[in-house]
Amino acid sequence: MLNLLQTSKVETCNSPAGEANETSERFAGPLGENFKRIPMLTAARKLLPMSRCHVLVVEDEQTIAQNVVEYLEAQGYTVDIAYDGKAALVQLGQQTFDVLVLDLGLPRLDGQQVLQQLRHQLGLTLPVLVLTAREAMSSKQACFEAGADDYLVKPFSLAELSLRVHALHRRATGAMSSGPLRAGPLRLDLRAQQAFVGDKVVHLSPRCLKILEVLMRDPGRLVSRAELEEALWPDGPPDSDALRSQIHLLRRALSQEGFNGVETRHGLGWRLQTADEA
Ligand code: CA
Fold first, then answer.
1. Which of 172, 201, 234 is the last residue of a domain?
2. How far is the CA of 173 from the centre of ligand 1 (A)?
3. Residues 72-120: tens digit of each pLDDT
4. Cα of 134 to ligand 1 centre, how many Å?
5. Does 186 share its domain with 89?
6. Span from the CA of 131 to the centroid of ligand 1 (angstroms)
7. What does the alpha-carbon distance between residue 116 and residue 80 come to, in Å, rounded to a whole number?
8. Are the beta carbons of 76 and 221 closer than 8 angstroms?
9. Among 31, 71, 103, 274, which residue has the least CB neighbours within 10 Å?
10. C-alpha torsion angle, residues 193, 199, 205, 206 (rounded to 10)
11. 62 alpha carbon to ligand 1 midpoint, in Å?
């Protein structure tokens, strides 16, 4: 887990403070080590199940694009890249995507024009997250009016980007229904905050319930330490072992009722085994 903990702290794309020109976006400091990290994630990706969420990342800065793609792929998403606005529209017209991550400063066709065309000419309703260095309210307003669903300003954390992509996909697929979550023998009644293995009640603390909820929302998906820590402690975990302790408690409680499907991927995160793996 140490690798993940350390990398999660440095996975931030930095641009000079107040810099409005997107061409100056660059990775700073520890991210010079990007390409050392990628082989680990690439190796991990081979172990992952097929993703159910297909993301198109439109970004002309190759280093940023590559880091976003590697990060999302390591968490089980299927990701394609377009490096300019026209290429993005061609791909959007040819394939079905679940979420679009869209830079604004793009060659050939500006991101805002891409947004307008995909909504009005292609008639696409997929969720769009705008990822840009433009932090002016006028830019945000124009994007939301043109049909954006979310807006993230660079520099950004890859963990936060992933959380937002996940939330957009979840909302678009209606997974936020108030009915209980089910995964194999597990059932989680969110309204009553009560978990079950089969018909046996599992007594869990609120934090363990939250971990279980995140895992059960997408069984099979690898969930990173950063994502779980952000879900449990938005202001930061009390210490580096806090999450591990909570996972241990969750696993022990589930195991007492006969469920052992919370899988650890060392250095990467956790996932809930799917019904056909159990
Ligand atoms: Ca750009």
1. 172
2. 29
3. 998 889 999 999 999 999 999 988 899 999 999 999 999 999 999 999 8
4. 10
5. no
6. 9
7. 21
8. yes
9. 274
10. -20
11. 9
Six-digit token string for 118: 């995909």
Q: Are residues 141 and 18 in the same domain?
A: yes
Shared domain check, 79 and 131: yes
Rg (Cα) of the chain, in Å, rounded? 19
Positions of E strands within the chain = 54-58, 78-82, 99-102, 128-132, 150-153, 181-183, 186-189, 194-197, 200-202, 262-265, 269-272
The answer to whether residues 224 and 4 touch, using CB atoms and an 8 Å cutoff, is yes
Alpha carbon of 196 to ligand 1 centroid (Å): 47
| Most confident by average pLDDT, 27-41, 106-120, 166-180 | 106-120
Rounded to the nearest angstrom, the distance between the alpha carbon of 106 and the centre of ligand 1 is 5
Residue holding tokens 């529209």? 89
User: How many whole angstroms from 170 Cα to the centroid of ligand 1?
Assistant: 27
CA 17 to centroid of ligand 1, rounded, Å: 16
Single out the residue of 30, 4, 52 nearest to residue 169, CA to CA: 52
Q: How far is the CA of 139 from the centre of ligand 1 (A)?
A: 14
Whether residue 20 is found in the same domain as residue 141: yes
Give the distance (Å) from ligand 1 centre to CA of residue 51: 27
Judgement on whether residues 162 and 185 belong to the same structural domain of the protein: no
Is there a domain that residue 224 lies in?
A: yes
Domain that holds residue 268: 181-272
Q: What's the gap in Å between 84 CA and the centre of ligand 1?
A: 9
Q: What's the average model confidence in pLDDT over 33-51?
A: 34
